[in-house]
Design brief:
Keywords: Membrane, Transmembrane, Transmembrane helix. By secondary structure, the chain is mainly alpha-helical. The chain has 4 helices and 2 strands, in the order ββαααα.
């Protein structure tokens, strides 16, 4: 420093918290002028995504409410299947279709978590915004709808249709709430 040579170390200025890129000018100091980003490259459907990054399904005609309703029907069908499997499993282990207190609560929580996860995954694949919160809220709404309206009739044949329809309604309402809250 004594001979007047420029210091190659880090600058002693406060870091900028802006989102603009900082560039070095030809004479060395750092400039905070914005730089133009190159246009984003759109991968073709036949190319694998780099680094295994998740991306939206190509040419999906469903978005918004129709995608949420389709997800609701799929999750409702999965709910019927998992409830049947839980009943069959309890029947095989305990001799009755009800697992009772501790094991039954654990099975219920696992089933609800699986429904929320699979719904979130399908919503993410369809490109719906806020997939995790939409799916978690929808599964909660579905659980309330089943408890209030369908609990006494789950052994009827028409419950195979009623639960997916209730799930589609729950996912539609949940999509509406999360997009309305997410836009604020």
């Amino acid at each position: 420093m004594a001979d007047g040579a420029p210091d190659d170390g880090p600058p002693l200025e406060m870091p900028s918290l802006s989102l603009r890129r900082r560039t070095r000018t030809s004479d060395g100091p750092v400039s905070s002028r914005p730089t133009e980003a190159p246009p984003p490259e759109v991968p073709q459907p036949s190319e694998p995504s780099p680094g295994g990054a998740r991306r939206r399904l190509p040419d999906v005609p469903l978005t918004g409410l129709p995608a949420a309703a389709l997800t609701g029907v799929a999750v409702g069908g999965q709910a019927v299947l998992l409830a049947w499997l839980a009943g069959v499993g309890c029947e095989a282990v305990r001799g009755t279709s009800s697992c009772g207190g501790g094991p039954g609560l654990l099975i219920l929580l696992v089933v609800l978590a699986a429904l929320a996860w699979s719904g979130s995954l399908l919503l993410r694949l369809l490109g719906v915004p806020h997939p995790g919160s939409t799916s978690a809220l929808a599964v909660g709404i579905l659980a309330v709808l089943v408890l209030v309206f369908l609990l006494g009739s789950l052994d009827e044949w028409w419950a195979l249709v009623a639960v997916p329809v209730a799930s589609a309604i729950a996912y539609g309402v949940s999509w509406w709430v999360t997009t309305a809250a997410g836009d604020d």
